[in-house]
Every structure is written in structure tokens, then in C-alpha cells.
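Entry 14. Ran structure prediction on the chain below.
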Amino acid sequence: METLGKRISENRKAKNIKQDELAEMLLVSPQAVSKWENDISCPDISLLPKLSEILGISVDELLSGKKEPETKFVPEEKRKDIKDMKIIVCHLGNGSSISAVKYGESIDTSMGLTPLEGVPMGTRSGDIDPAILEFLAKKEDMDIFQLVNVLNKKSGVFGVSGGLSSDFRDLENAAKDGDDKAQLARDVFTYNVAKYVGAYAAAMNGVDAIAFTAGVGENDGLVRKDVIARLGFLGIELDEEANGKRGFDNIISTADSKVTVCVIPTNEELAIARETLALVK
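Output, C-alpha cells:
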């Protein structure tokens, strides 16, 4: 796996810059540069603009190893500025959230005061009737701390599957072997994701694109297929072959689909670095 240290080292050598010369340019010690390149430590975020300038690559490429995102696979007539689009982001993993992004700004998200609200997750319950707390407290003789523990750590697809697993891969394998509870857990999940997507399409009075991301969103083609199958009213047409691929940015809807559906691998560390860099500039 290529690391930040390796990218610094390779690009430094490609520019015929010695470690001590790079250190002098950045006003740091040669030992600091050596530690970066051996992945013992990382350069301060404030140094990234200067470092990327010296190495002749963008900050994004330095951090992620990727050049600026390619859009050539998107037909010219379908390319739009994010500020002209209504997008629903499905961040699906052991923790999941759905976001409505209208003209470049998030206007709603499935999570509330805590991550417990929203769609069922690995072990979190998602939306429930608040009166369930009173019902369980009386029936199971539980206090509020025990109840919150159950809602956070013993619910979601883990609970629906009868405690089988919170891992969607385990649930898929069990469902293929005929485990009805495992299949029910996956069905409950995809139903609720589709319900939120439908609600946000209504809230924004339309949707141009739906993006799947995070562990399940990126890698579980069957979950994506089941969610999209519940959204036929939006005019989405799934490209089965594209949906079967993983590991890179990809459009999984057909050219005739009224809504563009894409898969975008999550890079939360890069997103945090970008936001931090913007603050220190």
C-alpha cells in the first residue's frame, strides 16, 4: 500500500531533491523529513501547501495518491456544477447516515442529536417510537442506561438477525444459506435507506444524483441493488455490470436513467485534512 511517506520520498527523488535540501526549504530538520518518509510521523498540516508546491503535485494527490477526480466518464451533457444539483448521499456502513445536499449545502441528515437516529445500523436501532423506552423499562426492568446500551450496541441489523452479526457480509452469507432473520435484517436496512432517499427527494422537490459511499455503500452491490429496486418511481435504471464493480469512483446507473447513481469510495482522513488545511491557510 502506498503511503504518504512513500509519496513524499518518490516525488522528492523525482525532483532530484535531497532530504536535507527539502528540510531547508521547509525550515524543518532533516530528521523530520526522514521520519515522514519512513512513516514514523507526518508533516504538519500547515506545511502541506509548500510541500506540494516543492514536489510539483497537488495537496490532494500528495495526501491520497490520486490526481484531481476524473470526470471524463460522465457524458458532457450530464456534467453539472454541484451548486446546481440536488444530491442524496448514502453513507452506509456499521454506522450509517443519509444526507440531502441541495445546491452544494446539506439541508438535512438522518442522524440527530446523536448517531442513534436514522436508519438501522450495525448495532444501533435507528428511528424508534420513543414510547418503546417506557415499555422496555417496565417489561424488562431496565434503567435508562441499560436501555441506551441496548439501543446503541444490541440493536440494528445485529438485533434483527437475532444477534448473528453486525457485519453485512456475514448476513449475506447466512441469508444465502436460508437464514430468514439474516435476510430480514438486510431487508429492514434497505427498506429504511430507500425510505429516507424518497423522503429527501420530496424535501428537495427532486433529486439529480444519489451517491453510495462507506464500507457497505461502496462494497455491497446487493444492498445498492435492493435500495434502488425500491426507488423505481424516480426513474432510476441500474447498470448491473457497473454495480458489480468496486474500489473506485463509478457510475452504476444507465445513460437513460433519470437520476445518476454513483459509488464514491470514502476517504474521511482526506476530507478532514482538506477542512483543516482550509482553516489554517
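Confidence is low (pLDDT under 50) at residues 67-75. Will compare against last week's run tomorrow.
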